[in-house]
Design brief:
Length: 320
């Protein structure tokens, strides 16, 4: 019997930053206490205009703005040698008045406070969601792969957060880093204020809307098909490095059909909320808004939503 292919949703949502789990796990675990975020667009195949230029950096102007602001698409987990800032991005950080991420990465008290929200409700554990054989697979995986947290603590986490830890282990390098952390270090060196569009607790709470049983099943699938899962992670990293938002958008349409009903919660609704909030913020100063790369493209991506609100959103070369 052919082995079931793993759902692409866990690695894509986590690494593209596109989603929350990756950055939550990257920051909290690396603090010693971890892909793109949910990606895609509506209509399963709809495109917005011609091919999108290969860049992750976009200028927001027009609508009477005295100073431009900028969008940048991040990836939460990369090999350390690939997590670097271009001269263009450094210049933007230097020129902007504030730096906005999905969550305020400088607020470690808030991050650590979100640990409770990372746990499943009703004191559930992974062993409550899986049969003994599948539970043993997950436990054995972590017995043979290092993690900053003991399995006894991890098994109380929402399973999609556990999947994000496996994603980081799948990177073909010994040391990983994230674009948000690189941007934050640069911003802090310039004494730039750092803000968050959401809270870590809010992001962790989003996973309560996806049945824990489904999350646990996807976690086991990723371990059963580890080589395919590793290749997906590497492919996504390569597309990110190529700064190909159209390809990111295309990959998102290969996701798990079982996730469709949650996409408005995880991605599209958040994009709409951010665009509405940014419309009220952009006239107050020059901002750099750095969010998961898959939040940018597509009909319901932030780029198009800001254009619909009357802004000119134009590509900025983002070479080495």
């Amino acid at each position: 019997m052919e082995k079931k292919q793993p759902s692409i949703k866990p690695p894509y949502i986590m690494s593209a930053g596109l989603f929350s789990a990756g950055i939550l796990a990257a920051v909290i675990l690396n603090a010693g206490l971890l892909s793109w975020s949910a990606g895609g667009q509506s209509g399963r195949g709809a495109r917005v205009g011609a091919a999108t230029p290969h860049t992750l950096l976009w200028r927001i102007s027009g609508k009477g703005l005295a100073k431009p602001s900028y969008l940048f698409g991040t990836m939460h987990v990369l090999c350390a040698e690939d997590a670097s800032l271009s001269d263009s991005l450094k210049a933007v950080i230097s020129s902007c008045d504030q730096i906005w991420f999905e969550i305020d990465l400088s607020d470690m008290s808030g991050m650590l406070g979100a640990m409770k929200a990372m746990r499943m409700n009703d004191s559930k554990k992974l062993s409550d969601l899986l049969d003994s054989s599948d539970y043993r697979k997950v436990k054995d995986y972590f017995a043979h792969h290092s993690s900053m947290l003991p399995f006894g603590m991890l098994e109380r986490f929402k399973p999609m957060l556990i999947s994000s830890i496996i994603e980081e282990n799948n990177m073909a390098c010994k040391t990983t880093d994230g674009m948000e952390l690189m941007i934050m270090k640069e911003a802090q060196s310039l004494h730039k204020p750092i803000k968050g569009l959401e809270t870590a607790e809010f992001q962790a709470g989003l996973f309560d809307s996806i049945p824990y049983e489904k999350q646990a099943k996807d976690l086991v699938n990723s371990i059963d098909s580890m080589e395919q899962y590793k290749q997906m992670t590497l492919d996504l990293a390569a597309v990110y490095k190529a700064q190909d938002l159209d390809k990111i958008d295309s990959l998102s349409r290969k996701d798990d059909p079982g996730m469709d009903e949650y996409m408005d919660l995880l991605l599209y609704g958040r994009n709409r909320k951010w665009a509405k909030e940014l419309d009220m913020m952009l006239n107050k100063g020059s901002l750099l808004i750095a969010v998961g790369a898959a939040h940018l493209p597509g009909e319901q991506g932030v780029i198009n939503l800001l254009r619909k609100r009357g802004y000119a959103v134009t590509p900025v070369p983002n070479g080495p």
